[in-house]
Description:
By secondary structure, the chain is an alpha/beta fold. Helices cover 39% and strands 18% of the residues. It is globular and about 65 Å long.
Amino acid sequence: xxxxxxxxxxxxxRFFAADRWAGFRADTPLTLTADEVERLRSMNDPVDLEEVRxxxxxxxxxxxxxxxxxxxxxxxxxxxxxxDDAVKTPFIIxxxxxxxxxxxxxxxxxxxxxxxxxSSPKVDLVxxxxxxxxxxxxxxxxxxxxxxxxxxxxxxxxxxxxSDIKSGRSNVKAPLYSHLTYDVLQGEEQIVDRPDILIFExxxxxxxxDLPGDGKAVPFVSDFFDFSIYIDADEDLIHSWYVxxxxxxxKTAFTNPQSFxxxxxxxxxxxxxxxxxxxxxxxxxxxLRENILPTRPxxxxxxxxxxxxxxxxxxxxxx
Length: 319
Ligand SMILES: Nc1ncnc2c1ncn2[C@@H]1O[C@H](COP(=O)(O)OP(=O)(O)O)[C@@H](O)[C@H]1O
Ligand SMILES: CC(C)(COP(=O)(O)O)[C@@H](O)C(=O)NCCC(=O)O
């Protein structure tokens, strides 16, 4: 047993240095190759096979235990109620964290690892950006500078989507977002057809809403989660990742005339950097402080990254 200091004893989490966490992998096999990891990672994310070995295999093993336990509970409840027509509903994993912290890479790696379990579960991945209000509506409500803030999402649609998924409906539609055009894709959608596991990723997935004055119970997105993960790093690091990514996108995605940010590919580097700094300070950092970081204590698991983007510490909620 490790020595615990006082703050750890009274914290709802147990903290593990990444190398200690790696040991919980036990005999979980490595089912991804270096090439596959390279294809799954986002542009500025250096995650590699060693990181999958160190962090993600133990996480995959933990999630497998949770999924198995929930399936057992489902079977026992069915027996208890003596019903045959109970519908098995998807196990939902929420992934939260700041803009530019690397949620998409984590979500894609987890998806691939989970679908390679021996039971070959069907795993789907949905991101909450599709539930943003379209730019035309954001402009109408003067919210273009609040993209990603709670009021920029169609929360009703988001909750309806999760409720449909959790009630076992087939062919549930999720709207899609394009980072290229910086807008919701009109007329395009993703069909989610009764997966065994749904990964639901976005900055807002652990947010709660104020209770209305009339005392009516309002559901939260996380009410539908079976397990939640928060990806964390110091704000200074995320800030530098955001600006570095913007400067790289300036040389790649922004050169596409269809990119909403195309004009920034034409600007000198200093002027482009000033735009990125402005977007970070006025929108994303503000949102992180006001609406995202306050949700961290609601996560079941926190993956904390260091300067190199690699995970340094894992905090697991004590049951
Ligand atoms: N303006 C942009 N143009 C093209 N791709 C982008 C742009 N902004 C972000 N992306 C890509 O979109 C994905 C989601 O990014 P983001 O929402 O910041 O979350 P995270 O970095 O936590 O995954 C990343 O793969 C990122 O590289
Ligand atoms: C779409 C986003 C809110 C992020 O959503 P996510 O997929 O990370 O949940 C973000 O990428 C964004 O557009 N922020 C607004 C300011 C900016 O352009 O960076």
